[in-house]
Amino acid sequence: MLFAGLMGLAGGCKEPTGPEREISGAKIFAQNCARCHGLDGKGLPEVAGVRDLTDPGFMSTISDERMRRSIRGGRPPTMPSFPHFSEPTLKVLVAYVRTLSQPELQLPPPPGP
Ligand code: HEC
To answer: How far apart are the CA of 51 and the centre of ligand 1, in A?
Structure first.
């Protein structure tokens, strides 16, 4: 599952077609979270109190379990809840968010042509 998140992060990976589509952490993040947290996870300046998800100091204080709860239930008053996220989606998303503060988890960019 972590792998799937990393695949998404590397970008440029074609999603397989067919019924079993790959879940991409980067895509879920871009579609649901980036409007407040920014694509890079640092947080947009206009969102009051937003957390910097790239800050290893802060992120290390949050367990995966807490992150799941925060995403599922939201963080009132600003962060909305995402109760509809399925278990696999949540897993991939949490793994992806982890990579934002842990550069060693990120894949190197693909080699050029
Ligand atoms: C409408 C803006 C908004 C959106 C959309 C949003 N967040 Fe947040 N997020 C916030 C704010 C503001 C905080 C800080 C709130 C707090 O600490 O109580 C926060 C806090 C967090 C935290 C820290 C929570 C904790 O337990 O301290 C995590 C992790 C997080 N967001 C991840 C996400 C993810 C993943 C998504 C997408 C599924 C997302 N956020 C979508 C605004 C947003």
So the answer is: 6
